[in-house]
Backbone:
């Protein structure tokens, strides 16, 4: 009798590089790199977004999810979005994405006063029989 277990891929940074941040400017939205769940048969992904708010922040940061069938053409309207809390710096927010072929994360400030720093990581999974 076989046992089914979760098979985790390697963690990857999808926003920022080398454990560094991207700095948001005004209300311009910045996007992560594509997350491909299709090619390796991944069922889902654990995403962590970290927000380093400026001192005495005014603006919040919105996190948005965009789906894609091919990793090139993304939804024009996000599937969902959530807003961070500028009262918590350094803020880390985790969520699970399932059943999309490809996706990317958008991050955007709610105003033009601050220049918050954001980075994001993903770890995909599928199931294997052992």
Residues:
């Amino acid at each position: 009798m076989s046992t089914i277990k979760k098979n985790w891929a390697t963690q990857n940074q999808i926003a920022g590089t080398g454990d560094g941040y991207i700095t948001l400017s005004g209300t311009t939205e910045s996007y992560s790199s594509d997350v491909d769940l299709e090619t390796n048969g991944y069922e889902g992904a654990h995403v962590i977004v970290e927000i380093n708010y400026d001192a005495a922040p005014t603006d919040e940061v919105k996190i948005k999810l965009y789906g894609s069938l091919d990793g090139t053409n993304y939804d024009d309207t996000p599937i969902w979005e959530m807003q961070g809390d500028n009262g918590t710096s350094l803020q880390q927010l985790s969520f699970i994405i399932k059943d999309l072929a490809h996706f990317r994360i958008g991050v955007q400030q709610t105003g033009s006063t601050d220049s918050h720093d954001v980075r994001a990581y993903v770890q995909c999974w599928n199931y294997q029989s052992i």
